[in-house]
Recover the amino acids of this structure.
């Protein structure tokens, strides 16, 4: 059975060039970057080279604005909790109802410790406006956190304008750019961004490594205390192979982004068109065109997402019903609910996130399988409904 992987928003494979870049640091060049002897100095130099590469790709003015973390979750926690703890003038944060739980849960944690959080509702396309942000800011607001691109429905937010709205009122701005890095343009200096979170495994790099960009002059409280690594801001021996791999992966992704995005948009729109024309009762979720190039999130009426996923998996097709971090949950997507989707329909949504290896032939195969699944599941649903409605014998 040929496997078809369409869940690149959950994670991606590691590219060969990235593996090659990391390999020497597992055996030959394994020195601790805090050591003063030669192998340690070599490791330290490699970290700083990676830091400089990533800073340039993100538009940072100084490579020391780049801090290495274990991934997007740690970066988001550090930006949100660190800013709250460092702030001396207020205890109010503005975010949105459609954030990843790596933002929502730290905000809920702060609420338990005396902070107030305003959760902005998106429009029906999953978008947040700068005007909403501006209106929500209070005198005691210390941070605005709005994601660049939504991980479930793919909608892209106007983060530069949102950042400007925050700065006009003297408030710091954080954006979770985990889904955007290597795909959408990022210029932290030009986009009014004070904190930016990214994670390597979303752009064909290794898992377990991420970055928090912190604008010079901003000083969030450290989350990890210990040694003096990362300029005494993030203790712990640096993961040199993964740091090197992340820089290589981001460089490759940014270099190929324009060409790959055009290909993915074409494939995405083709697959959406095929699904709509061949399967009745289907609705596209998210913005019709201001969305990630490879994102397809659609509701299939009378097709429970979990049943659909099981059938797709049996056919060798990997996709999802939303965030990978919420897999196994029986609750409908919080993103779709926030967008005003009926909970019943929210439970019938599937996400296909396309990547480098996906082809039109694979798209056709997935659509064909969806046609078969829709006929089978909808027949079963109809039979079950008729059985429930049938009068009982007296």
């Amino acid at each position: 059975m040929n496997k078809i992987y369409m869940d690149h928003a959950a994670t991606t494979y590691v590219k060969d060039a990235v593996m090659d870049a990391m390999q020497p640091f597992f055996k030959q060049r394994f020195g601790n970057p805090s050591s003063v002897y030669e192998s340690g100095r070599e490791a330290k130099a490699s970290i700083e080279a990676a830091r400089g590469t990533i800073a340039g790709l993100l538009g940072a003015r100084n490579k020391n604005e780049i801090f290495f973390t274990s991934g997007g979750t740690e970066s988001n926690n550090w930006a949100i909790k660190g800013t709250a703890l460092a702030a001396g003038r207020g205890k109010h944060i503005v975010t949105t109802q459609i954030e990843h739980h790596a933002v929502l849960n730290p905000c809920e944690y702060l609420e338990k410790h005396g902070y107030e959080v305003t959760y902005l509702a998106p429009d029906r396309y999953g978008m947040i406006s700068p005007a909403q942000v501006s209106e929500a800011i209070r005198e005691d607001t210390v941070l605005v956190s709005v994601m660049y691109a939504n991980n479930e429905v793919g909608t892209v937010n106007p983060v530069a304008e949102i950042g400007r709205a925050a700065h006009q009122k003297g408030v710091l701005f954080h954006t979770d750019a985990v889904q955007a890095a290597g795909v959408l343009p990022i210029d932290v200096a030009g986009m009014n961004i004070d904190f930016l979170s990214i994670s390597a495994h979303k752009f064909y790099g290794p898992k377990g490594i991420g970055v928090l960009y912190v604008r010079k002059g901003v000083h969030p409280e450290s989350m990890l205390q210990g040694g003096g690594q990362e300029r005494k801001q993030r203790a712990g021996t640096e993961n040199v192979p993964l740091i090197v791999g992340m820089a290589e992966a981001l460089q490759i992704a940014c270099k190929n982004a324009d060409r790959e995005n055009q290909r993915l948009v074409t494939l995405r729109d083709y697959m959406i068109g095929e699904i709509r024309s061949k399967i009745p009762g289907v609705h596209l979720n998210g913005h019709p065109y201001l969305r990630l190039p490879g994102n397809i999130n659609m509701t299939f009426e009378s097709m429970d997402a979990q049943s659909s996923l099981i059938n797709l998996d049996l056919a060798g097709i990997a996709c999802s019903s939303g965030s990978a971090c919420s897999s196994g949950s029986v609750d409908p997507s919080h993103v779709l609910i926030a967008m005003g989707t009926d909970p019943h329909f929210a439970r019938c949504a599937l996400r296909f996130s396309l990547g480098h290896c996906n082809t039109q032939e694979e798209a056709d195969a997935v659509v064909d399988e969806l046609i078969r699944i829709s006929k089978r599941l909808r027949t079963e649903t109809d039979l079950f409904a008729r059985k429930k409605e049938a009068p009982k014998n007296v």
Q: What stands out?
A: The radius of gyration is 22 Å. The first strand starts at residue 4 and ends at 5. The chain has two domains: 4-9+257-388, 16-253.
